[in-house]
Specification:
With 214 residues, the protein is α/β, with parallel strands linked by helices. It is built from 6 helices and 10 strands, in the order E-H-E-E-H-E-H-E-H-E-H-E-E-E-E-H. Strands 3-2-1-4-5-6 form a 6-stranded parallel β-sheet, sandwiched between helices. A 4-stranded antiparallel β-sheet has the order 7-10-8-9, with helices on both faces. The longest helix is centred in the middle third of the chain and has 16 residues, at 114-129.
């Protein structure tokens, strides 16, 4: 098996590392110079350039992973890959949820929507072990809060929480992963947020205050 990876950022690098560890022939293309890990064959080229596609030979490749930082460039890459080789398996990184359908229409076999995957991974890990688990990264922590009956944030949009200087990652409500920050918070929702510990403590204190009418 031979796989082509377009883009050598975090996603492309991780994919290449896993593939080569399993003995898969892996070719990576990126416009920046890199020192590839393992047995990766690296080519420095701009995949948005027509000259690159005029010279590439896909006859030996079984699959391609499109891991570009811009969705518009990824869609162009999908279209060109599909045109050059109809039976190529194409797997794509998608940065914006609304672009996933465009990528399938362009010819992708499987699209990984990063916001959804990130939210699901974080929430499944956090909820599986405790209601609040901290993860340190540059003094940023992740906390998960359950919205209790009578909480003053019920009915507010998720994005309103970000005025407390925290970032809403996602919420889980009635078994559904919510990433739309316009979503109105309901009792029983569990919300994953990231921020400085002092801001998380302030938010936690506020969440414990019930509406006066209750």
């Amino acid at each position: 098996m031979k796989v082509l990876i377009l883009g050598y950022g975090d996603v492309g690098r991780t994919a290449a590392r896993i593939l080569t560890s399993r003995g898969v022939d892996t070719v990576v293309v990126d416009k920046e110079a890199h020192e590839p890990e393992g047995n990766v064959e690296f080519t420095m080229a701009d995949v948005t350039s027509e000259s690159f596609w005029e010279n590439i030979d896909l006859s030996d490749f079984d699959a391609a992973i499109v891991a570009l930082p811009e969705d518009t460039h990824a869609i162009f890459g999908i279209l060109t890959l599909r045109k050059l080789k109809e039976d190529l398996k194409i797997y794509v990184r998608c940065n914006e949820t609304e672009n996933a359908e465009k990528m399938y229409i362009a010819g992708a076999n499987y699209v990984v929507v990063l916001p959804m995957v990130t939210a699901e991974m974080i929430l499944s890990e956090v909820f599986g072990e405790s209601i609040r688990r901290k993860m340190g990264f540059e003094n940023i922590e992740i906390a998960v809060y359950e919205v209790k009956k009578g909480s003053k944030i019920i009915g507010k949009a998720l994005k309103e929480l970000e005025s407390r200087e925290v970032m809403v990652i996602a919420a889980e409500c009635n078994g559904e992963i919510i990433t739309d920050l316009d979503y109105r918070i309901k009792e029983g929702c569990r919300i994953a947020v990231a921020g400085k510990i002092d801001k998380l403590l302030e938010l936690e204190a506020e969440l414990s205050i019930q509406n006066k009418k209750d």
